[in-house]
Amino acid sequence: MAKIVVALGGNALSRDGKATAKDQLEVANQTAKELAKLVAAGHQLVIVHGNGPQIGNI
Questions:
Q1: In the prediction, which pLDDT does 56 show?
Q2: CB of 24 closer than 8 Å to CB of 9
Q3: Can you give the pTM of this predicted structure?
Q4: Burial of 58 by CB count in 10 Å (0-12 exposed, 13-18 middle, 19+ buried)?
Q5: 30-52, pLDDT tens digit by residue?
Q6: Number of H helices, E strands in the chain
Q7: Among 13, 7, 26, 6, which Cα is nearest to 53's?
Q8: With b meaning 16 or more CB within 10 Å and e meaning fewer, what string describes 22-56?
Q9: What confidence score (pLDDT) does residue 57 get?
Q10: C-alpha dihedral sign at 51, 25, 48, 31
Q11: Which residues on neighbouring strands pair with residue 48, listed in sequence order?
């Protein structure tokens, strides 16, 4: 199967412009479920962080 690079983080974790920790966690959980399907299908994933607004909030 394929090797897939996924950039996750930054604005990809916000939904409808909402960037609260709770909203980002919900999006991350939904995304993880979808990525798990790719792994279950035999794909290899490389997951990198987009380094968006989360870094500025630290």
A1: 62
A2: no
A3: 0.75
A4: exposed
A5: 999 999 999 999 999 999 886 66
A6: 2, 2
A7: 13
A8: eebeebeeeeeeebeeeeeeeeeeeeeeeeeebee
A9: 62
A10: negative
A11: 7
